[in-house]
Please model this.
Amino acid sequence: MARIGILTCSNATQELGCASVSCLGDLRKRKGAFELYPAAEPLELIGIINCPGCPTLAGPEKFVKRVRALTEFRIDVIHFSFCIKALCPFKEEYKKALETHFPDIKIVMGTHREHMPEDEFRRRVAALFGQEKKGMTDLILGKD
Ligand code: SF4
Model:
């Protein structure tokens, strides 16, 4: 049995409201990166957590601490979500930090099937970020 944790991008989950439906759906269907497991091996999702946001110049320690929410529970594999794979400028640094701190845990880059090329995904995410969204500043200024 593979005990699996999934790490997602805060921009996708917190900012853009992704509930990880595609990641979890393809885990159940054993598609995308989950195709790599032997067909007879049961997959058990132990936990899912989003990254702690920008690591700053202070390095990845903040990230490693965050991922303890998974690593403390006998995880065999941590999958970096497709959104991390496509969007995160720190993904290789994060991967290296986890491999150093948790040599017994395998790190896999990716989760669900890639429904579009990464550059198109990035372009469409940029369009979402660029949408006009009103907030408290607009309310204070009477522009809501
Ligand atoms: S550090 Fe990477 S994974 Fe975390 S919010 Fe930023 S882009 Fe997403």
Notes: The first helix runs from residue 10 to 15. The chain has one domain: 2-140.
